[in-house]
Specification:
The protein has helices spanning 19-23, 31-35, 37-41, 43-47, 88-95, 118-128, 144-154, 159-172, 188-200, 218-235, 246-249, and strands at 50-59, 62-72, 77-81, 103-108, 111-112, 129-133, 206-210, 238-243, 254-259, 262-265. By secondary structure, it is of the alpha/beta class. The chain has one domain (19-265): P-loop containing nucleotide triphosphate hydrolases (Rossmann fold, 3-Layer(aba) Sandwich). A hairpin with a 2-residue loop joins strand 4 (103-108) and strand 5 (111-112). It starts with 18 loop residues before the first helix and ends in a 14-residue tail after the last strand.
Length: 279
């Protein structure tokens, strides 16, 4: 799959448990609550919806990540910046469960992601995450509305219902009349808006966007970012986006910079209070 959400990733909604919930009387002594590693002890419960701790990842002899750590709150829009080759896309792919780190931990909603098997990570991407990539990566044989409906179809929704859900996005994103067009009949900006609709149609809890405006001119890119951030805030979606452009990062609530495989914050991370996390 592609731009939308890995081959059709859909989503469910989960809330991190606050300290009072984790430790309140009656819950602290319940075996499932006290001993369940994902729910009671996962650092993502305490520090953020998505968290990376000390990630190391190499491709052959070339290191991409060298101890990268970051945390992202539910509903936050985080921009990961950095020059080409800095490791920012590798970090995003590790957070999304596309890649597994050689060392370190990735957590989502209190669940350890990096120790999951491929089938479990694939289900997580399909059911909880959405994806938008630089070149849209629409399926050329499908119409625009079929591309948007694809995550719903792969998740088992009936075709008629999935297409109805998909069509609702065309008016929101200024694509009325483009529903039956194929990708080759769309402009770059239109294709990227279709990709954005595909990433959001199943209401993912986290949207991962890798250079979502990289192939667009500045005016079209700003239009896509306005639509992306507005749709995410309307649905309470957490957004983690990679970009090398300050004008794109300016749409985020917070920015971090990846240099030489490590993460440095431009502003203090409000989620991180323990040594070794965040930067």
């Amino acid at each position: 799959m592609t731009a939308a959400r890995g081959p059709a990733e859909a989503n469910g909604l989960v809330q991190a448990r606050g300290p009072a919930e984790a430790n309140g009387p009656g819950e602290a002594n319940g075996p499932a609550e006290a001993n369940g590693p994902a729910e009671a002890n996962g650092p993502a419960e305490t520090y953020g919806l998505v968290q990376a701790r000390g990630l190391v990842r190499s491709f052959g002899q070339t290191p991409a990540l060298r101890g990268a750590s970051v945390s992202v709150a539910a509903g936050e829009i985080l921009a990961i910046m950095g020059p080409s080759g800095s490791g920012k896309s590798t970090l995003l792919h590790c957070l999304a469960g596309i890649l597994t780190p050689d060392e370190g931990e990735v957590w989502f909603a209190g669940r350890r992601v990096d120790t999951m098997g491929e089938a479990e990570r694939s289900a997580l991407r399909r059911e909880r995450f959405g994806f938008v990539f630089q070149f849209g990566q629409l399926v050329p044989e499908l119409t625009a509305e079929e591309n948007v409906a694809l995550p719903l179809l792969l998740d088992g929704m009936r075709r008629a219902a999935a297409l109805t859900e998909a069509r609702a996005w065309f008016g929101r994103l200024g694509l009325d009349g483009r529903e039956r067009h194929r990708s080759g009949e769309l402009s770059g900006g239109e294709a990227q808006r279709v990709a954005l609709a595909r990433g959001l149609v199943a209401h993912p809890e986290v949207l991962f966007a890798d250079e979502p405006t990289g192939s667009l001119d500045s005016m079209t890119g700003e239009h896509v970012m306005n639509l992306l951030t507005a749709a995410a805030r309307d649905h309470g979606t957490t957004v983690i986006l990679v970009t090398h452009e300050p004008r794109v990062a300016a749409y985020a609530d917070r920015e971090v910079v990846v240099r030489d495989g490590k993460v440095g914050s431009l502003a203090p991370d409000p989620l991180v209070t323990s040594p070794g996390l965040g930067s």
